From TrEMBL, chain A:
PANTHER family to which the protein is assigned, alphabetical: ABC TRANSPORTER ATP-BINDING PROTEIN ALBC-RELATED
Pfam families recorded: ABC_tran (PF00005)
An example Gene Ontology molecular-function term: ATP hydrolysis activity
Signal peptide feature range: none
SUPFAM superfamilies: P-loop containing nucleoside triphosphate hydrolases
Organism expressing this protein natively: Candidatus Lloydbacteria bacterium RIFCSPHIGHO2_01_FULL_49_22
Keyword list, A-Z: ATP-binding, Nucleotide-binding, Transport
Gene3D superfamilies associated with the record: P-loop containing nucleotide triphosphate hydrolases
Protein name: ABC transporter domain-containing protein
UniProtKB/TrEMBL annotation, chain B:
InterPro entries assigned to the protein according to its UniProt record, in alphabetical order: ABC_tran_2
Annotated TM spans: 21-43, 63-92, 113-136, 142-173, 253-277, 334-354, 374-393, 421-442, 448-473, 485-508, 514-539
Transmembrane in keyword set: yes
Source organism per UniProt: Candidatus Lloydbacteria bacterium RIFCSPHIGHO2_01_FULL_49_22
Pfam families documented for this protein: ABC_tran_2
Protein name: Uncharacterized protein
Keywords of this entry: Membrane, Transmembrane, Transmembrane helix
Keyword check for Metal-binding: no
Phylogenetic lineage: Bacteria, Candidatus Lloydiibacteriota
Length: 242, 547
């Protein structure tokens, strides 16, 4: 579903992402973990078509993001780390707006919105303006907006920041079910327990480079960690090796 | 703290010029040249105007004083009004003020607002007042000392206007708080109401004037008109003291000049003392304003434009609906819209005053078609430029935080530009056409002239809107999304300067056509406008698609 090959992204002369390659198959939840400024968000934004890479290629569902952005974006659902939306727009209007941009008809949108709102128990708040939402509610609406057009690939940047424990559990369940239905999920986070809990594979990123990729067990093995070691311990060991 | 802020802004300017130094320096130079040319134009306008007026032995002095009084009154009223709008928005806003207001130095916030508003009001006024005073100095015996005194008086006038505006807001806030109905919205609405009432009161002061009687034009027994009625008309306003300083300086009455200057300084000091005392109550009002901003006071459905978005069946329609929703629900923007409309209304009212206040000597636009229409056209261009500067130009930078919503969808980024162009072109054209019709009915021009004017105005509005949007899209600001700050950035000021010149060029083409039938300049102007629109569209399209 997603193939990233040798991508490089520089800001001025500083490489934020340096020769990173990985792929995600349908049904997979792939987590990219790493410290601040390791290039996680830059990679997600490049895949979402918000940034242009300086080198390498990104293929989404058979479409090169640089050559056919329209086709690639049509199958992506993007959840940003900062869910900033126009403050005077209501949650319901925001969902209609996003749906319309993906070519959904008004009736399709109404049906889908009615189906999605109960997922996060936000029914009843959809007519409030964004400026009145808590950060958590903004995050919930941005997750719902990403699911609205039934994408094949979900790009999730810091999925549970701002969500209460109950909503975080719902979000994790949503991503799992999405993958179970054949979707692919790229999760970018430094909340390691989340990555450990739901990922099928994990990539460890540091200073813009991918240090290691594998299942949690494979990473633990590479890190020479004991049985029962947490991802945090594995991550510390792997990033120290370098 | 103020020295820290001054250093911060100074370093910010240095940082701004660190990258693309050549391009930015060239832009700054071009802007200064345009600004200088504008000041020169103001100077020449006043100089030749006064020179012409003084040729008339009977009216000369009286009309000159009247013009200076009117000019200073309108300038100070505009400064007061814009400070009122800026103040009511920025005093209670939750931007980066939380940090300052959580510290023991919480009164710093209103002080910064005062300083910022003073300087942002001062420099545009000086660009107009300095050349005007220089023109007065050339025509009348003002002298260097008189010029300096008048300049100081103008600075005091700005300080008084800005402080008065902030005190009015605090006064309204205190009343609303005592009635337990204080909120950001109630302060905004009450201030707007007060502003409209004061505008009507001032307008009423001049509405009934018969200029022929006012200047005693039919009194054959008089060698020159008596100045007393003119001076009485304005002595309620602080701007009157500045006029009197100019007048006393011309007459060589040094003591009176110093006395008037002292009165202005005293009034400034008094208002400042009251201001310093009043801002101690800023924090509790700000706290309440934040309560109403956030949780608990959710506004429910029935918002303006909601159905437009929900029924949008195409991406472009959804984008247009979004533009409409964001525009009509933006209280701050609506206040600015009302402010510019009121200023435009004042201009239309002055046209009414000039045409109807002359009694039997009334001159209609038909008698002076070229001149009257060119003047109307230049004014319309100016007001449309003001709208474009405040709403169209910052619209791309304003969306930098929520830009991901559209940018991550399959939609081309050019669609955003197109939707903004359609929306603002239609909106500004509608306003321009409305005021064209209003002014045409006041001045009185023929149907053919009106049709020609409307066509010309529409082309100009689309060109100015495209130019504003293109400039905003090509040079998005990554440091702020505040439309007021964005309007005063270098590209913003460049926009207004070029737009004003473009408007003047159009007015001259217009005048040429109606005065001597010179069609070439009109065709050149129209061709230039169409080519400009196409060029800006293509360049912006290319730039947005590359991003």
């Amino acid at each position: 579903m997603l193939t990233v090959t040798h991508i490089v992204k520089k800001f001025d002369d500083i490489a934020a992402v340096n020769d990173v390659s990985f792929s995600i198959a349908p049904g997979e939840i792939f987590s990219l973990i790493g410290p601040n400024s390791s290039g996680k968000t830059t990679i997600v934004k490049s895949i979402a078509g918000l940034l242009q890479v300086n080198g390498g290629t990104i293929w989404v569902d058979g479409h090169d993001v640089a050559v056919s952005p329209k086709e690639a974006k049509a199958v992506i659902g993007y959840i940003p780390d900062e869910p900033s939306v126009w403050g005077s727009m209501t949650g319901e209007e925001f969902l209609h707006f996003v749906g319309a941009l993906y070519g959904m008809s008004p009736s399709q949108r109404v049906a889908k919105i009615n189906e999605l709102l109960p997922l996060f128990s936000v029914t009843g708040t959809e007519k409030d303006q964004f400026q009145n939402y808590s950060r958590g509610n903004k995050q919930k609406f941005s997750i719902l907006a990403a699911l609205l057009h039934e994408p094949k690939l979900l790009l999730v940047d810091e999925p549970i920041v701002g969500l209460d424990p109950e909503s975080a559990a719902i979000a994790k369940k949503l991503f799992r079910e999405f993958a179970k239905r054949g979707g692919a999920v790229l999760l970018v986070t430094h909340t390691l327990p989340v990555a450990e809990e739901i990922s099928t594979r994990i990539g460890v990123l540091k200073d813009g480079a991918l240090l290691s990729v594998g299942t949690f067990d494979e990473l633990r093995e590479r890190a020479q960690g004991e049985v029962g070691a947490t991802l945090e311990q594995v991550y510390t060991a792997l990033t120290k090796v370098r | 703290m103020f020295s820290f802020l001054a250093t911060y802004y100074r370093k910010g300017i240095i940082r701004y010029f660190e990258r693309n130094t050549l391009a930015k320096s060239l832009t700054l130079t071009a802007f200064l040249v345009v600004l200088g040319a504008f000041a020169a134009l103001v100077h020449e306008g006043f100089y030749y105007g006064f020179l012409y007026i003084t040729r008339d032995a009977f009216f000369g002095e009286a009309v000159s004083i009247y013009i200076i009084e009117l000019f200073l009154l309108i300038s100070s009223f505009l400064t007061f009004s814009s400070a009122l709008v800026s103040g009511v928005v920025s005093l209670y806003r939750d931007d980066d003020a939380g940090l300052v207001l959580s510290s023991p130095s919480y009164t710093l916030k209103p002080k910064i607002v005062l300083v910022r508003m003073f300087f942002s009001s001062l420099w545009p006024l000086l660009v107009v007042i300095v050349p005007a005073l220089l023109a007065i100095m050339r025509v009348f015996p003002l002298g260097v000392m008189g010029f300096v005194a008048a300049l100081f008086a103008a600075v005091f006038l700005v300080f008084i206007a800005v402080q008065a505006a902030l005190l009015v807001i605090y006064f309204i806030a205190a009343i609303l708080a005592s009635l337990a109905i204080f909120s950001r919205l109630s302060v905004m609405l009450s201030t707007t109401l007060l502003f409209l009432c004061s505008t009507l009161l001032i307008a009423n002061q001049f509405r009934s004037i018969d200029l022929v009687d006012f200047f005693q034009a039919r009194l054959l027994s008089k060698d020159v008109p008596d100045l007393a009625p003119i001076l009485e008309q304005f002595n309620l306003f602080p701007s009157h003291a500045v006029t009197m300083i100019v007048y006393y300086s011309e007459q060589g009455m040094v003591a009176s000049v110093l006395l008037s200057l002292g009165a202005l300084a005293l009034l400034s000091a008094f208002l400042f003392t009251v201001f310093m005392f009043t801002i101690k109550r800023h924090l509790p009002y700000w706290q309440i304003a934040q309560e109403h901003e956030g949780a608990g006071k959710h506004t429910r459905s029935g918002f303006r434009g909601a159905t437009l978005l929900m029924n949008a069946d195409r991406p472009l329609r959804a984008l247009l609906a979004k533009e409409f929703i964001l525009f009509v629900r933006n209280v701050r923007g609506m206040l600015w819209l009302a402010f510019i409309l009121v200023v435009w209304g004042i201009q239309s009212a002055s046209s009414f005053l000039l045409t109807h206040g002359l009694g039997d000597e009334r001159v209609s636009g038909v008698a002076l078609p070229g001149m009257a229409m060119a003047f109307q056209f230049a004014l319309i261009t100016y007001f449309v430029s003001m709208f474009a500067l405040r709403f169209a130009f910052p619209s791309f930078s304003e969306e930098r935080k929520s830009g991901w919503v559209v940018a991550s969808t399959p939609l081309r980024r050019t669609s955003v530009f197109r939707s903004k162009l359609y929306f603002f072109s239609v909106l500004f054209s509608a306003l321009a056409i409305l005021f064209t019709l209003l002014n045409a009915s006041i001045v009185g021009i023929t149907g053919a002239m009106l049709l020609f004017l409307l066509l010309f105005v529409t082309i100009t509005v689309v060109t100015i809107t495209t130019y504003a949007l293109a400039l905003g899209a090509l040079f998005p600001n990554t440091e702020t999304d505040d439309p007021e700050v964005l309007s005063t950035t270098l590209p913003g000021l460049m926009f207004i300067a070029v737009s004003v010149f473009y408007g003047i060029a159009g007015a001259l083409a217009f005048r040429g056509y109606f005065a001597s039938g010179a069609i070439a300049s009109v065709l050149l102007y129209v061709t230039f406008s169409i080519v400009t629109v196409l060029l800006f569209f293509l360049v912006t399209k290319k730039s947005l698609e590359r991003k």
